[in-house]
Amino acid sequence: MYYFIVNKTSGNGRSIKIWNEIEGILKEKKVTYMVLLSSNKIEVLEYISTIKSRNSRVDGVVALGGDGTIHEIINQLIGTVYPFTVIPTGSGNDFARARGITKDYEQEIDRILKKGQQTIDLLKIGDRHCMTVVGIGFDGKVAKEANEMKLKKWFGGLAYFFIIFKVLISYKPTYTKLLLNGEERIFERVWLIAIANHPYYGGGMKICPDATSNDGKLDICIIHSLPKWRLLFILAAVFKGKHVTMTGVEYVQVESIEVESNEPLYVTADGEIMGQTPTTVTVTKDAFHVIS
Ligand SMILES: Nc1ncnc2c1ncn2[C@@H]1O[C@H](COP(=O)(O)OP(=O)(O)OP(=O)(O)O)[C@@H](O)[C@H]1O
């Protein structure tokens, strides 16, 4: 049995239209499935509890949504061996981008029905798990604004571009103390800290180009000690992942990071607001099953 979870709110209602097409294909191929058309997170929790209580074979749990939808589902599925995947219908779709999952849903259904599986790592932040990137500081503030403005519903990845400029006008870098695998590092003027399991966030920004979800490591990009105008050049280079060797960019791979700052910084995971610093992020190796 395949279980589909369609987030009616993601991608400005696009998911429902795509689901209607997909349902036609599933019926044609005589696939057994159940579907939840959800408009809030509580429904996801109840649906996944029902799947667990059925105690029957689960061939796959498939999300139709963006990274926020994935975030919610992985946090309910964690601890199970149900294979998960996504058909991207959100505005950013950074998990799908990282794994080469396309918007060609006929092709993606064929992939899903082949039943290939693999295990991947997840990031752990407090009691939540994160699939893509934890963003702290400037990027945390950008994600917060993006969620509040709902602009990304209309402009997709392009919305982040406008919001970056808006936040940049008033944002000030912060004194930050990091513990990287327990070793203290002080950064006087931090713009952002991105902690990654997959390379992309913000609708295609390749912030941690070497991040892979099967190495048991956090890839961390720290942008610091730069004037504002230089940050703009760095951010432009991020789209191609060419920023990592530039002055003011530190790129490390570790198993744990603790972040303290002299004023609270926004922390996001998969584009969802988690809270503010101080915070600790670790990696859980082979924590989760996905359809390959
Ligand atoms: N299954 C669900 N049903 C309804 N709402 C959900 C569900 N899962 C998550 N949400 C909420 O819906 C919001 C939007 O979902 P999502 O982030 O997937 O779409 P998006 O914003 O269009 O895409 P992206 O994150 O890729 O930019 C999330 O911020 C989350 O709070």
Automatic annotation (TrEMBL):
Keywords: ATP-binding, Kinase, Lipid biosynthesis, Lipid metabolism, Magnesium, Membrane, Metal-binding, Nucleotide-binding, Phospholipid biosynthesis, Phospholipid metabolism, Transferase, Transmembrane, Transmembrane helix. SUPFAM superfamilies: NAD kinase/diacylglycerol kinase-like (SSF111331). The keyword Transferase applies. Its cofactor is Mg(2+). GO terms for molecular function: kinase activity. It comes from the Bacteria. InterPro entries: ATP-NAD_kinase_N, Diacylglycerol/lipid_kinase, Diacylglycerol_kinase_cat_dom, Lipid_Phosphate_FormReg, NAD/diacylglycerol_kinase_sf, YegS/DAGK_C. It is an enzyme of class 2 (transferase). The chain crosses the membrane at residues 154-171. Residues 1-129 form the DAGKc domain. Its EC number is 2.7.1.-. Belongs to the diacylglycerol/lipid kinase family. This is Diacylglycerol/lipid kinase family protein.
